[in-house]
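Section 3.1 - Work completed
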Amino acid sequence: MEVRKQLFGLHPSIGAGYNNLCLVYDRAGQRGKALEYAKKGLQIKRIFVKQPSNTVLVSLLNVALFTHTIEDDSDKSLGYLDEAYQIRESLGLQHSLTGVIEDYRGDMLSHSKRWQEAAHSFSEAVHWYRVTEVSSRTIAEALHKWGVALKHLERFDEAHQRLTESYQISSDLMAEGHSKQKDGKNLDNTVGELDDLKRIRIEESRR
């Protein structure tokens, strides 16, 4: 990539190339390098792409994710997500990437224990995932995280509803033979959260 820059100068395709390197390093478990190339890709794309575009938005999502993971800086990551949301808003919110933005936002707000905002973001993620017909697996995972946020807010009935929905979707995927390892993990985690809610309710009934 650096040789190409030296030979031909900057070109829009270099931004996409850096983004691909980001994904390669992420799969290799080298998230520091993934963040480095995500930032380089975003920088190049910003030079050449002046109109709102999903290509810039995807780079913003990558930078937000790895900034949160590597630098543990939720505020900076949320800033990138705000910028990504503004791009998607100008293009039209009815797109699966709107759900991804809200899902990432919910993760980062949960990390900061900002449960009220996290619950709202996960509810928005589920809404846009359903509207844009993304995979049931993705919806189940978002429902699970929404339920956990509601549990932290002590909105136990709502938490139980969301977790039960997540459980049902994951169970159906496994019963239909379309399951992956993460479905079993989501199912186990959801069962654990439902058991915890049951314990909380028993304790409350004894007071």
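Second construct:
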Amino acid sequence: PDKLSKQAETVLAARANPNNSGDAKFAEIAEKEEWIMFRRMHYDWWMFPWAGPSSYGSKYQLTKQDFFILTQDKQFMAKYIFGLRCIIDAKIKGNIDAMMSDYVSPRRVRKIMVSVTSFKNAATGDTKKALEAMIQTIYENWPRLTAKKKEANVKQIAKDMQQYCVK
């Protein structure tokens, strides 16, 4: 039977922990439209998990199977997509760049892009369509991602996609 890895269980627990910047905190911030908080908080590893290691080692590192299992979990995917929507809304509604600002780690945009692309690649049906739409919205609102002259950080996204993205 399909079973989530220990790391995926850690991701789910971190997202649910009220002491973390997880699902409940994202909902609270979005409701209050305190967009700046998405730039200030630490949440990348559990809100936008990927198959790559982190400064925590493999603690939040998902397996390929985890991505496929989680895309079938409607509740998880609704929360995941809501988290992405919050990052996008911070930029569109609040003019706060929580992904590529000089105030956030350059790794954040890489983690988010590899994470959402991995989930999109593992998803099917409406979930896949929703994630494709989110990715399109990101590219439309972060022109630095598609600029002809690529920043080093953006070049690294392509490398991370090759190395860590679920295909």
